[in-house]
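Hi support team,

I'm filing this because I wasn't sure whether my run with magnesium ion finished correctly. The job status page said complete, but I'd like someone to confirm that the output block is well-formed before I use it downstream. Pasting the exact inputs I used:
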Amino acid sequence: MNILFIEDDMIETMKLKRTISKLQLKHNITEAKNGEEALDILQSGNTLPDIILLDLNMPRMSGTEFLSVLKADEKLKFLPTIVLTTSENRADLLECYRIGIAGYVIKPLKYEDYETKLQSVLNYWDNNELVKG
Ligand SMILES: [Mg+2]
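And here is everything the job wrote out:
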């Protein structure tokens, strides 16, 4: 899959890449450091990602701000977006589902647990029919 990974924390980006290479998964990762950068990529590119993995707490444009813009766009609103966060805040979760997400995944603190959880999330989406923009 082509995955747009929106995350401001470099360590988190390294963790995802490490998981994908360690498990030998064939996914392409495009990185964006915040919502603004992600929108630039989505609006300028000719191919759209299959799924978006989205952090919530980011500078410049937060995850929920990004989601609102995404879901208001006639073309981009179809992209399955999965929130990947450490926030167990129920208000965040409700707000994300209200705007429109395909999933809300809380990142485990232990690396082994992170790897297992990410593998199952990515496998699930790999088994889905995707929009193929
Ligand atoms: Mg963050």
